[in-house]
Backbone:
């Protein structure tokens, strides 16, 4: 991949990250309500895919929908206003972060796990009938690959030979559940078994994702039917802001005091055999320690990994992106800081 | 022009498809169920699906958002349980969530209703459940003219509409699921419902408007679908006893025509709701609430199934509201 | 003993699990959400699931039929759309279809309700929709004592029960989905609902029995869940205006306690239903129908959401019934 | 396989067939209401699987549930009475042919396509907790393999390592739809992608099915987890009695007159391009001709195919089964013929 292309990708990644961090800040300040699922850590995946989209292409999004929208060029000020719940938000304050709708970009999100599959099928169907040569992509997590409607969508998309690319962002976790503990077989094989080509890529490297998506998307555009991309990545901020697992890691003593006592009482009470109890405790402990391990041992920030390819240029691009995004968010906030 | 109920629906769809290229049809087995549409509009616009209701109903939402006007078929409304999310959390919420900026012009076509011995997983109505979801319209025609007019209105509507087609009125469904070509089984098919005049040129029947099928001053029987015909039969019998019953065909469950309901209640002061859907938490309650909230004093009764529809024909007949049941309930209410 | 709402539920489940080996728990993330149960009863009885609600809710039906007594968790009742079939056509119909020969002792536990800014795909109540399915019981406790007693009753029940746990009452849900540990956000949590006395030894609260929370002769406010507390607040204000409001906590949506409803209506002659679920085709209609059918003359009003719950906190507050809305509606009804 | 075993299998097949034919007869006489989905053609599959079940094992069934129940030893008279809708039926006339429930045999059916998957998972879960060593099987058609809950069940069963055997009776059709037209990939691979062993067998040969099920079921019994059996078979009586496709074949002139005229009118009306119209007509015609071809060219009766292995003994066994079943059905009818 040439330098210029990579710079563009990285620049988009930086924009997404900046927006996520701005949103996180607003959330921490209590200005955004409810759950906030950040897409920090998914930027390389999103950038690599979205770079191939053109006007008339559509995106079906999940509960981490801000990064693709930012990358696709949605109005930052309107997005920020929406997260803030304001009347001038992109959905007039009625959708919020899990339900962002941007008709001009043919992009819609939903908080129901797996629903971006059918939505993507519908977008792709409309493309094939009304906008030949245009495609749809759908984004979702690896946990969504166990949701029936997603599995049905894989079959339906192939059966109708639609211009749709399935992008599975595999961070290995669904909330606090390790996906491999509840998922059988390997996901790229699962997709292949539904009769479509399937690529596994390093989701920390925007260039690698870009390469795989290029093949998948151009194939779809040419009428070759759907494809599947599995991109391993991580969520730097856990499942959502205030993720209880991360809170345990950050304040083990305080949190453990809260959790520990009832836990000890439970173990001491009449119940299963000791073997079973130990197994139960083990699985609780394992979850926490795996999270801790993952965070300690691995450097999984795609901005670092992809940025390294660009050297100092990365810093520059990042600063640019940051100031652009911050200025837009500031516009959204302007005159309302006190609200 | 005289048409059967199912012809009337097909006529409306064919008309809309000829007018507007964006109208497409998909669902299970539509290549034969909608053979005539397929032959006329080709396989790009009449598409078979796998048995994947969640995926294809959800796909209809996406297709409608992206410019098509899909008519998506869920064979029997009973199957909506496997794919309700596409209506509950997607189709019905896009307009609300997007602050009115994005709409979902789709029609869900499904057959409903019992009376042919297929038991409670295939004979439900579920219009109460569906009407309880804000953002969805639900229509239930009782005759060919309305079937045509409401289908046309549904296709032209810019928000999602569930169009329910009663199997006792649709000849081909009854042939498929009821008789299977046998001559030695019979069903209580309301002939004015299964066949009738459809005004030409085709025109839409507004969604949300009820129709007085028979005027009367003593009691208003408020109902829809096949029960309209049962109610008319009962009204005739009541007439024999000197009771003038008004029969209101709601035609739409959602939105409900409150005006029609209230004027009937104000006029007769006695309302009987006849429902083929489950009695509890559904249509009859909503009618009661509308009347009660209005302050109009009216006595009230309702009949309809309280349980899953049993298989045996005679047990099913006990559960589904028939003309005799209506007659008795109306008579009781008047005596009260 | 003083307990939080969520402790009270856990206490009931732990008690039942200790009594009966057949009681098991499964759902998404239960290895942490139900950590204490897991530590006590082990991973054979507290099992994590993939995000496959259709499969695991359906599996609960099979497990219950084959001898277990599963408590299956659907995190948020909003997600029921992806798996309703397991309730609508399986759990709720086995007893009816088998002629009463086979029953399904299962509990579906799900959180419900809004008031913390998560928008309309995560803040629904849907108890009206569920109660409309014959063969399902639906309970909605408003305080720790009832939460414990109704959970116990649900587990002991031999037919399927949906147990709905309001997120404003359950500390951990609110921590998860609302505050995320932030100190700078606040929610209108009814303190008597979130924490309170639970009588020992634990005992079941009968399903289908309502409770008068405050007696009054001028108007009956019939409600459930969080709205009970809003209604009590409103009743206090009404008292200031010389109006004695009765507040009825239904506790069960299905079966409804018609006796309690009718005696309140007969006593006060004015009924206000306050619902946090969608207003149309739901609980308020059913209450209206019960009263209207009884012949008791009573004026009637109802308040509740008419649309999807919007995201912005202030818009959400407009849509959800608060103490002021109840006060105003009650006052209007009395003036009428 | 030894002769005695095969005879037993064949005998069960003959019993199932006799029951289906008796039901068909009652249906033709107008005594059974609604749709009747016969299992004629599936007997070898059902016999081969059910032969391995013992007390405490469970069966989750689909809309063709009578053959497994007959093979498993359900009371024939009670079954027949149920189909007839009588108070003394096995479900007191309330369930009917799509909703047969036999608690003693831990067997239940449902008319919702795909629902035998979750039900089977639940049965297997209960077995693993309450009846170690016992198993569950679920039966379903290949069309059900596109239903989300079935796909979810494959994953869940493996993830929980349950003693469950999935039996897919692949007749190639879902009502009037050729499954291969709407199904992507190959089903045995699909199952394998969910991490379980999967066998493809000739569903006309009870011995072959028996062999595959033996492995699958004994593995499940031993705690090895779920397995998948794909058995190709056919439906001798179409999708259900009165199948419109079969009626067309049986009375082409009469039916074609009815269908033909509106069809010609449709083609003549304004609409798609001629190419599209021809494609539409083609797909209608193809469906009908494929059905016709399938019926003419192939001898797919499992009773013949499996029976051939037994020679004249088959005739004897068949006659025995017939008289047993007919006598039981006659008992159900006794004194009520006129009802
Ligand atoms: C149908 C449904 N079930 C459960 C949930 C609750 N939920 C929200 S996000 C989530 C985890 C999703 O995991 P994955 O698909 O891997 O995405 P990730 O959050 O890891 O990006 C769950 C279970 C939901 N929103 N919808
Ligand atoms: C969820 C659902 N969708 C659709 C139907 C209607 N239906 C009944 S049987 C059937 C075909 C099933 O095909 P398959 O699974 O291959 O079984 P077969 O009938 O061929 O034995 C369909 C679509 C249904 N009963 N349930
Ligand atoms: Mg994930
Ligand atoms: Mg089949």
Residues:
């Amino acid at each position: 991949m040439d330098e210029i292309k990579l710079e563009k990708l990285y620049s988009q990644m930086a924009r997404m990250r900046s927006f996520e961090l701005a949103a996180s800040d607003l959330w921490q300040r209590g200005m955004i309500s409810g759950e906030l699922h950040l897409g920090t850590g998914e930027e390389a995946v999103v950038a690599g895919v979205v770079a191939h989209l053109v006007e008339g292409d559509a995106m079906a999004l999940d509960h981490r929908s801000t990064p693709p929208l930012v990358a696709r060029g949605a109005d930052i000020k309107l997005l920020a206003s929406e997260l803030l719940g304001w009347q001038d938000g992109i959905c007039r304050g009625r959708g919020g972060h899990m339900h962002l709708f941007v008709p001009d970009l043919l992009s819609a999100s939903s908080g129901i796990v797996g629903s971006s599959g059918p939505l993507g099928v519908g977008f792709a169907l409309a493309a094939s009938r009304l906008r030949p040569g245009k495609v749809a992509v759908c984004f979702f997590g690896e946990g969504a690959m166990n949701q029936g409607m997603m599995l049905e969508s894989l079959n339906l998309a192939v059966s109708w030979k639609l211009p749709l690319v399935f992008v599975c962002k595999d961070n290995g976790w669904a909330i606090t559940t390790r996906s491999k503990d509840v998922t059988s077989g390997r996901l790229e094989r699962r997709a292949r078994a539904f009769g479509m080509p399937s690529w596994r890529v390093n989701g920390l490297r925007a260039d690698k994702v870009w390469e795989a998506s290029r093949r998948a998307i151009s194939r779809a555009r040419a009428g070759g039917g759907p494809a599947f991309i599995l991109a391993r990545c991580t969520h730097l901020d856990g499942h959502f802001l205030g993720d209880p697992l991360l809170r345990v890691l950050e304040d083990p003593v305080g949190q453990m005091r809260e959790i520990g006592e009832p836990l000890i009482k439970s173990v001491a009470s009449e119940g299963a055999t000791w073997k079973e109890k130990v197994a139960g405790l083990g699985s609780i402990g394992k979850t926490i320690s795996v999270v801790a391990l993952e965070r300690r041992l691995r450097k999984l920030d795609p901005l670092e990994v992809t940025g390294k390819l660009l050297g100092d240029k990365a810093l520059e691009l990042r600063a640019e992106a940051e100031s652009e995004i911050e200025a837009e968010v500031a516009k959204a906030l302007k005159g309302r800081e006190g609200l | 022009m005289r048409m059967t109920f199912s012809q009337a629906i097909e006529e409306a769809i064919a008309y809309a498809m000829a007018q507007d290229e964006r109208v497409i049809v998909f669902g299970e087995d539509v290549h034969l169920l909608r053979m005539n549409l397929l032959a006329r509009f080709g396989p790009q616009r009449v598409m078979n699906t796998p048995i994947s209701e969640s995926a294809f109903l959800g796909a209809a939402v996406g297709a409608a958002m992206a410019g098509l006007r899909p008519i998506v078929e869920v064979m029997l409304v009973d199957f909506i349980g496997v794919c309700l999310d596409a209506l509950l959390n997607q189709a019905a919420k896009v307009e609300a969530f997007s602050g009115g900026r994005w709409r979902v012009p789709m029609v869900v076509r499904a057959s409903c209703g019992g009376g042919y011995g297929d038991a409670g997983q295939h004979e439900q109505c579920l219009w109460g459940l569906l009407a309880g979801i804000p953002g969805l319209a639900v229509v239930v025609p009782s005759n060919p003219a309305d079937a045509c007019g409401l289908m046309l209105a549904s296709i032209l509507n810019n928000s999602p509409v569930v169009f329910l087609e009663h199997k006792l009125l649709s000849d081909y469904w009854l042939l498929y699921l009821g008789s299977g070509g046998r001559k030695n089984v019979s069903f209580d098919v309301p002939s004015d419902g299964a066949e009738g005049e459809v005004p030409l040129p085709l025109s839409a029947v507004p969604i949300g408007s009820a129709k007085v099928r028979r005027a009367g001053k003593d009691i208003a029987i408020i109902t829809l679908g096949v029960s309209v015909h049962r109610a008319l039969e009962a009204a005739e019998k009541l007439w024999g006893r000197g009771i003038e019953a008004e029969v209101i065909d709601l035609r739409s469950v959602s939105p409900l025509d409150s005006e029609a309901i209230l004027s009937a209640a104000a006029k007769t002061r006695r309302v009987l709701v006849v429902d083929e859907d489950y009695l509890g938490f559904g249509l009859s309650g909503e009618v009661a609430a509308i009347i009660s909230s209005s302050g109009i004093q009216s006595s009230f009764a309702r009949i309809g199934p309280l349980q899953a529809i049993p298989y045996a024909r005679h047990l099913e007949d006990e559960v589904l509201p028939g003309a005799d049941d209506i007659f008795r309930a109306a008579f009781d209410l008047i005596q009260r």
The radius of gyration of chain C is 19 Å. The pocket of thiamine diphosphate (ligand 2) is lined by residues B 28, 51, 53, 75, 79, 82; D 63-64, 111-113, 140-144, 171, 173-175, 239 (CB under 6 Å). The domain at 211-335 of chain C is CATH 3.40.50.920 (Rossmann fold). Chain C has a mean pLDDT of 98.
